[in-house]
Design goal:
The chain is α/β, with parallel strands linked by helices. It contains 9 helices and 13 strands. It folds into 2 domains: 122 residues, Nucleotidyltransferase, domain 5, CATH 3.30.420; 151 residues, Nucleotidyltransferase, domain 5. β1 and β2 form a beta hairpin. The two termini are 24 Å apart.
Length: 290
């Protein structure tokens, strides 16, 4: 049976899926990365995920999605995982598994996966997690710009804002990534809280946690409004770990967008789990050139 494998190497987890020739997920797995990981440890965990998904026969290819700028199979720079800079994933993986390997930006992979299963031809994909990533589909085709389009997390929404891990100031992801949630939680609750803890507290009805997500929704809605004025997508698909808390911030996102936009709002959808890895597997299955 022909199949493909896709892996998403994120800032905190490595996720992998196996899909059949009809793009149905037949297996999936995830491994949590240590907080202070190294390139050697991350590559070892990548191999562990692939070992569990790659069978002896029928493998058409492996897709690898990584957070950052990618060129010719190499992760050039990853602001949120700098220990992975200059890693040649294509060489590392193709040498071990002897198959065709596609390496691309993780959210571009997700955008490709969404393109495979949606009717819309103009799609903006946004992932919310350790950082913020973007993937673009325009006219039914992936839009890459000159090479690295989609780094929406590093657009400045406040010129004198906090310094981002990329070196810029006031980046979108300083406000609407996990770092932004932590900052809001500290301001509102007076406590240091990770985004998953704020999520758990909101689920219990904690008023302060609910307020954190409402304020977060306003910040996210501001950034998405800017992107809609530029791109005018038919649909925005939101993924990443923070999207699991969407029930607590989506209303605030839409309200903020309605307040700021004079053009029609796009549809907003929440992606399925393993969306980046699924898209990477689709790229491998379809023989994408990256």
């Amino acid at each position: 049976m022909v199949y493909a494998v896709g892996v998403d190497i994120g800032g905190s987890h490595i996720e992998g899926v196996r899909i059949d020739s009809r793009k149905r997920v037949t297996n999936k797995t995830t491994i949590k990365l240590p907080k202070r990981s190294t390139k050697k440890a991350a590559v070892g965990m990548l191999y562990s995920v692939l070992d569990g998904l790659c069978e002896d026969k029928g493998l058409k290819g492996i897709g690898i999605g990584v957070a950052g700028a990618v060129k010719d199979g190499v992760l050039i720079r990853s602001p949120n995982s700098p220990f992975m800079d200059s890693t040649d994933f294509r060489k590392l993986v193709s040498g071990k598994y002897e198959t065709r390997v596609v390496v691309d930006n993780d959210v571009t992979c997700m955008a490709f996966g969404e393109m495979m299963k949606r009717d819309e031809e103009n799609i903006l994909v946004v992932t919310l997690g350790t950082g913020i990533g973007g993937g673009l589909v325009s006219g039914g085709r992936l839009y890459r710009g000159k090479s690295h389009a989609g780094e929406i997390g590093h657009m400045s929404i406040r010129f004198d804002g906090p310094v981002c891990v990329c070196g810029n100031t006031g980046c979108f992801e300083e406000y609407a990534s996990a770092r932004g949630v932590r900052r809001l939680a500290a301001e509102i609750t007076g406590r240091k809280m990770e985004s998953h803890t704020v999520f758990e507290q909101a689920a219990k009805g904690n008023k302060a946690a609910l307020r954190v997500w409402k304020e977060y929704g306003k910040l996210l809605g501001t950034g998405l409004s800017n992107l809609c004025f530029i791109l005018d997508p038919e649909v925005i698909v939101i993924g990443g770990g923070i999207s699991e808390a969407s029930e607590y911030f989506m209303e605030a996102v839409k309200k903020e967008m309605r307040n700021r936009m004079f053009i029609p709002l796009p549809k907003i959808a929440v992606a399925r789990t393993y969306a980046n890895a699924f898209g990477a597997a689709c790229m491998a299955l379809e023989g994408q050139p990256r």
